[in-house]
Amino acid sequence: MRQIVNALGRALPEYIEGYGIVRPFNGAFATLPAMTRQAPKVKRMQPGECKLADSLEMVFKRIPVTDGMTLSFHHHLRNGDHVVNMVLAVAAKLGLKNLKVALSSVFPVHAPMVDHMQAGVVTGLDTNYMSGSVAAAISRGVLAQPVILRTHGGRARAIECGQLKIDVAFIAAPTADDYGNLNGISGPAACGSLGYAYPDAEYADWVVAVTDHLVEYPLTPVSIPQTRVDYIVTVESIGDPQGIVSGTTQITRDPVGLKIAETTAKVIQAAGLIKDGFSFQTGAGGASLAAAHYVRQMMEKAGVTGSFVLGGITGYMVEMLAKGLFRRLIDVQGFDLAAVRSLAENPNHMEVGADFYASPFNNGCAVNKLDAVVLGATEFDIDFNVNVVTGSDGVIMGGSGGHSDAAAGAKVTIVVANLLRGRLPVIMDKVLTATTPGETVDVLVTERGVAVNPRRTDLKEKLAAAGLPLRDAIELKALAEKIAGVPNKIATDERIIAVIEYRDGTIIDVVRKV
């Protein structure tokens, strides 16, 4: 088949079986929307009709759910989620086949999905991130058709524009009333923001709320309204709220991580961003939180009040809000239980949907208002392209999530990484799997120096004037290889197991079977 080459020099087939026609990535802002928003069918609910269903099986039969449908789920319960496994077990019991699962992120808890894939119950997967047994099985080629990996904003765009058509959305609802009003801030499995479920609730043909905490009508506050919910099913437990915690949400004590974090804060300061109205996003990992800690010290010393913190919210960000360092938290997902409590109690802690957060095709998403974002990487190359999908062995172990979205929106995008990971260089000539394009990445911070994208001569001058240890990316690569040697290239075959969409729906890369 004829190959086409995208803007990053990645060779792609014109057509991918199980995906369709390939639209190659042409640049972070090159693709303009040429589509309209889709809408589900209009329904009505007569007075006296009841939305409560006795079981998931009853809902499957009433809709009815049939072979080949797309069922969507969300990851606000993260590794504590019970709903995905519960729903797919019902599908298997009823003998359904060829289902497509559109799950915003896949975690180790979703391991039973592998059995459903092997049995032909699930034959398609559309997600933004994956880890654990499902990711390993996909990497081994368990599915005949490739997985679609999107960004958080790209998933919202795909749903709104009809590219990802959802037949039935199953929403894990920590609290619901009997008419379908839902929120995530109360109940035994309170998880905070339901933001990633917003587009599905708005555009799916059928919406099913699964809850373990049914309350008297009307529920308040409402995250997802009754006007979009068809059925409510009460189960014993939708999940374990302790499982929403994202790895470590504690500041790292590793000296190398602390050095990188302190340098990152100095980059933000040297860029002139530590001032009133400062806006910020960072991850939940130890080094990212350490960077937030150093930024906090700078803000306190300068007497600065920031505008907002964006993204997945941690307890550390909640504390900064409480101390008056930021005026608002804009929350699409809670990363720990302190964030859940804050969303319930603080009116300056805002819950928003994935489209508001990061969709590139609307009248302005929140990432566009970011001053600085701090992101991680599994690999980084001399053209500043970033890989957050595959590990050093070529196996899928992540996904863009909001990485590409925030990088595109922020004034200054900083990627932090140890120069070596597991005795392997992180920086190379070309990343194995391109996820976030180098044109949207401004600075790489390592323990051995700081590299600035040649596009940002303005930023390089500011960092040099501040005395930061600048090196170019090629120099950092050579240093890493001097320490650890040149890593062996990973051998892959021609079979494509995953298609990586950029946030605008073009293809930035593919993952081939190792």
From TrEMBL:
Gene3D superfamilies: Glutaconate Coenzyme A-transferase. It catalyses: citrate = oxaloacetate + acetate; citrate + acetyl-CoA = (3S)-citryl-CoA + acetate. The keyword Transcription does not apply. One of its GO terms (biological process) is acetyl-CoA metabolic process. It holds the Pfam family CitF. The keyword Lyase applies. GO terms for molecular function: citrate (pro-3S)-lyase activity; citrate CoA-transferase activity. One of its GO terms (cellular component) is cytoplasm. Keywords: Cytoplasm, Lyase, Transferase. It is found in: Cytoplasm. Its EC number is 2.8.3.10, 4.1.3.6. NCBIfam families: citF. PANTHER family: CITRATE LYASE ALPHA CHAIN. This is Citrate lyase alpha chain.
